[in-house]
Each structure stands twice: as C-alpha cells, then as structure tokens.
Amino acid sequence: xxxxxxxxxxxxxxxxxxxxxxxxxxxxxxxxxxxxxxxxxxxxxxxxxxxxxxxxxxxxxxxxxxxxxxxxxxxxxxxxxxxxxxxxxxxxxxxxxxxxxxxxxxxxxxxxxxxxxxxxxxxxxxxxxxxxxxxxxxxxxxxxxxxxxxxxxxxxxxxxxxxxxxxxxxxxxxxxxxxxxxxxxxxxxxxxxxxxxxxxxxxxxxxxxxxxxxxxxxxxxxxxxxxxxxxxxxxxxxxxxxxxxxxxxxxxxxxxxxxxxxxxxxxxxxxxxxxxxxxxxxxxxxxxxxxxxxxxxxxxxxxxxxxxxxxxxxxxxxxxxxxxxxxxxxxxxxxxxxxxxxxxxxxxxxxxxxxxxxxxxxxxxxxxxxxxxxxxxxxxxxxxxxxxxxxxxxxxxxxxxxxxxxxxxxxxxxxxxxx
Length: 419
Known about the structure:
Shape: elongated
Low-confidence stretches: 81-96, 101-109
Largest sheet: 7 strands, mixed
Strand content: 15-25%
Radius of gyration: 39 Å
Structural class: alpha+beta
Distance between the termini: 67 Å
Number of strands: 19
Order of helices and strands: EEEEEEEEHHHHHEHHEEEEEEHEEEEHH
Helix content: 25-40%
Mean pLDDT: 83
C-alpha cells in the first residue's frame, strides 16, 4: 500500500515552499519519523519526516520545485528497500568463429611504375607539392592512389616553411597595453545563482520597512567599563551555577526592557489607523546564519533572569545555525536587538523588523580616549544606534530610550534595583 508524502502546514501566512534537498533516494528504506527531505520557506528550513516505516517508492517533486501546502511530494510503500537487480541469466555462449585473416597486402610497385599509373589530377598534386606517392596511403580500387588520398595527406602533415637565412635580431616591440575585457568576456566570468526563498523574503521585508515606515536613526555611546568589571567578577561562578556563560546580550536585553517599560511607544506597532501597545516583552535577537539573517524571539524576556535569557539565546542561536527554528520561534517579537559588533562593525543604521517600530543596534567595543572628571582616560566604548518609526515614536522618546539603556549598561546595578 502506497502512502502519500505531502507538504505539511507551514505556519501562519506561509502557503508555499521550495524543495531544498531530498535526504533519501528512491528504493531507500525509511524508519518511522526519519527525515525524508528538507523544505525551504521564506522564514525557515524544515524537515518532512516519514509517518510510517517503509521504502521511498517515488519522488514527485524534485529538488528546486515550488510546492504548496498539501501538495504531493512523493510516495512511501510498505516493506524494506527495493531488491537489488537480478544478474542476467547466463546463456550458453556460442563459440565465436575466428575472424578471417586479412588478405596480405599487395607488394608495393616500384616508384616509377606507381607514378606512371597515377591519374593526371593525382600526378599534378604529387608533382606540385613535391611528394612521393609511396609515402601516401592509397584507398582506391586495387590499391590506387586517389585525389582525396593526396589532399588528406596534405591536410594532416605539418606545414613546412622554406628555410631562410636567419635575420639579424631585431629590438623587441614594446608590449601593447592590455585591452579591457568587453561585456561578453565579463559575462563568462560571472556566476548566476537563484536567491533562496529565505533571502528573497529578507529582501522583501527590508524593502517593505523602508517603503512603509518613516525610519530615522539616533545614536549614543556607552562606556562598557563597569559592565566588563561585573562580568569578569562573576562569569566563573555564574557559569558554574547555571551551566551557561555570562555574555553581554543578557545585560542589553534587560536594559532594553527597563527602557521599554518607561517608553511603551517603542514597544508598540501601527495597524491601520490604530496604535497597538504591547504589554509584554518578546525580544527578537538577530542571528546570522549561512542562509541569511533570522530573528528568533525570546518570549516574556522580562520574566526571565540573566541565566534564562542567556540559555534561551544560546538555544535559539544553535537552532538557527542548524536550520531547525520553528515558525513559532520566529514570529511575534515586539522589539529587536542586533549585534553587528560580533562581525567588527563600529557603527551602522539597522533596519526595522516589521511590524515592530524600533530596533537597537549594538557594535564593537573599542578603546578610545574619553574625558572623565576633567582627565583623559582610555575607556572601552560602544556606539549604540536606535532605528525607529517616526510615525509612532518621537525624537524625544527615541533619545530618552537610548539614554536609559546607556545608564543601565554603565551602572548595571540599576537593572537589579529597577531604577
């Protein structure tokens, strides 16, 4: 009995996918719940597992095909893998008759006699090109030399130029300047690759954000001295107790929640002519993957302690790099944090993740000379950037948000004391 393999429900607002890769071949045995193929949507790559043990009998949708929810991908049959092909039955072999021996070649005629028997056209070709008839293989009747034999010989022999006295060595001409390659030559050096569905979706959403939102970016800088000191003091005991490293991201998540609670417009979104204020804090954390940037969401981040935030971010980051994120883990964030500093970025203007109204960009920590209490000191500094939708967030709110984040990072006790 054949069992159909179909495209599962892909998630809210996702109606089609691309067959990225078949993990099994026709005839392969498959265990129950074993992955059969990978589907790529505009948000995630997901596996389609076998709902029963059996054999992959047929592949209907080949790799690269676009398929809709419920479409037939292939069929699974009961039983083990396809039997190996039977060797062909041996049949009594007929004894091969020995091939008749080739007739002995006729003895070559003397050169003068050969020349006399040539046709006028062949003789003229021989004489004009100073050839010997005996050097040319004859294919005509009774071993005669034909005009085609002579022409074939002329085409196959290396061209010989008459010897000439060697001229006096002349000065080498100056090398000609390289001619720029034309469009046709450049096209041969190009490679055209189809965008993945995820990359297409990223492009659409980023362009949508620029076309829809009245986007503006404001900057500030933060002194990381105290945060680095706190982290260095407690990182070992923190990891020993919680089984996870203490990073910077948990501090920034907590600092942003403190600022979002004070400035609810930054945690809101526009829907038509309404403003929807979110009284919960689902923080998206941008993660780079081989397929592109994705933003998994830390749910109810305000209810997690530092260890909870670090564990959740670590688990989501691993799933993102492995292509194992679910649609639920990518949907519904209220605010996003993107850390370009891990790639060495010193400053940038991040793009809003719609329908959110703001995104915080973190950057590289770099030592710079700063004036502290009237003296110049070397301090580890980081630039912060807040891109926001000016339709809903005023400049005053954006600047105040960054100032609150700055205060929490420069004095981490504020986060614990909620001040």
